[in-house]
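## Example record

The block below lists the input lines for one assembly entry, exactly as stored, with component labels intact.
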Amino acid sequence: MSFKSRLCAIAFLIAGLTASCAPQPKLTQPIRVLGDPPVYDYPINNPYAATIIGVPPEMKVDYSSVPALQDRTITLFKDRVVPEGFWYQRGFKYSELLQTTPAPLVYVIAGTGADSHSESPHTIADILYSAGFSVVILPSPTHPNFIINASRNFITGNPVQDSEDLYRIMKVVDTQVALEAKVTQRMLVGYSLGGLDVVFTARLDDEQKAFNFSRVLLINPPLSLYSSMQVLDTMLYQALPDGINDAARFVKTAVRRLSRINQSSDALNFSNERLLIDAYNKYQPSDARLATVIGLSFRLAAADMIFTADVMSRSGYIYPKDRDFTTSTSLNDYFAVALRTSFKNYFDELYMQKYQAQNPRMTKQDVIAESSMESMAGYIASHPNIGLITNRDDIILAPGEEAKLVALFGKNATVFPSGGHLGNLGTPSVAYRIILFLER
Amino acid sequence: MQKRHSILFACLFLGLAGCDAAPAQQGGIPPTRHFTSAAEKDYADKEFAVYDPAEAVNKQVYKFNAELDEYVLLPVVNAYIFVTP
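Predicted structure tokens for the full assembly:
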């Protein structure tokens, strides 16, 4: 999910993106040819801290030789009228990194609220391109750009329907890629919520056979969308009993603390690489505070998603359905209300209403079960080309869910003992496992 | 000459304000979710909202600048980079 990258973005913003004068640590070279597996020495054992901090700078792999992602914009619905207020989201945006020689193409599906410019898909693209794969990164169906330009009914969050949207987009993107690169075979990788989306997309491909994915890999997926969203919703309240009404004070404290880290360092050292880990070591925040940071970041992503879904579908949920949405519309009040809307609110009040209108016999439990990984158990068991990489302490999984997830994938599951949610993604060990599964 | 420039700028800004003054259709149907109490609205106003009486004009100007960048300035810069040795 995008909360880690959002947090990093906020932290980097605060630190100021300036050239580093500090000596750079010697970085690990990318894994190109598989030899012995690297030793797993990820140092952060607190799953909340791991999720926020990610990989410490001295452990990062050197991907400086990987070219920059190329952004692409396409129109999927020619007749779609997008409210003028969304002028900055014109056209469906995705990114690609294509090899100049014939190579397998990997479609990467981003996690909740993320697009190709988030940190995790960037890391995955670096890992894959270095190992000789071409890469296309698609935004999550929960990202506003996707909802506005690619979603059919705008009420996102149902993997069955989201995968149909994704599949249709991939067919269009594939014809564009064919103009630029030679593709030998196609694979699918999804992280976080994207992991759930790729299983449903792979099942769709079994019926339609447009891609014949040779490998499908899930990285830190949820077992149940509904359950993980509730876990994340709950995290917000751990250090904020009054929820959003306390949030401004909490954010101000966090910003003040982060800014002190730079003040106390060498005047010439503007490097922000260690900002988060230094802040963690200095202040030793409680698990409750760390959980709240994650919950708050998730709430921001959810607010984006819910507001966009509401305006586009003209549901009158947060934004009046009979009011134009233009550049000059003041959004303060709607933003404040959206921040007070949990994913559960959205699910119970908007999402269920829309799905029950389509399928009156579907109960809430039916919809939750239908969008769970467990509903795909038979499909996963009968497809040995589907694999899983997760962490024993992934914070988006409720107690007992990690074991159920691993049981679904059997010998195709790789479980790391630490890393929280995607915190260890940039380590050589995880890169090795990703490449090992795709090249097997 | 100076005076003519001033008038030009004044017209430009009046023009932008004119865009903004076109009344957005106000919603008559209240949305499902809204502030649950006056205190909540008060808190949101104090803590999250930024005092910006010219918000609508500022947003229009931001949009104008972003589109100028995207469709005029960046293509010019890219063309310059492409042709210069």
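The CA atoms of residues 60 and 427 of chain A lie 6 Å apart. Chain A has a mean pLDDT of 89.
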